[in-house]
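Deliverable D5.2: sample structural annotation.
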Amino acid sequence: MSRTGEFATAELPTLLVFAPRERARTFLRTAFPKRKWKTVVVRDINECREAFRSVLIDAALIDIGSASEQVELARERLRLAEAELAQAQERFRAGVAVNADAITALLALTASRAQLIDAETALRYSHLSLARAEGLLLDIQ
């Protein structure tokens, strides 16, 4: 949010209106009184297609940003899990801890690796969504 408390246009959900404009706005005001919308009013079907494509591209770019952050967080979790495993193994070798601590750390490391794979997969899917929205990739059936 900006300093004035208003939402930036990119943060607002987009509403494509290809109908009587006032009816749609009235519905939104009554159904979601506290929600703000970025409204795009289109006049013909080609304009509607272009507006829809623009919305899909915006959504894909937001997904890419979010997925990129998830990948970075997953990498950090993996790094921390590796350090935790090394510390648990060192404590076990020193006789301060039992082997169960090392096994628990190993399980956490495995879970962190799986989370990284999931995050990287989501990032790849978001790139595919962007390519599809831009018309560079056709749906494969």
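Annotation notes: The chain has a mean pLDDT of 79. The domain at 62-133 is CATH 1.10.287 (Helix Hairpins).
The annotation will be released with the project's public dataset once the embargo ends.
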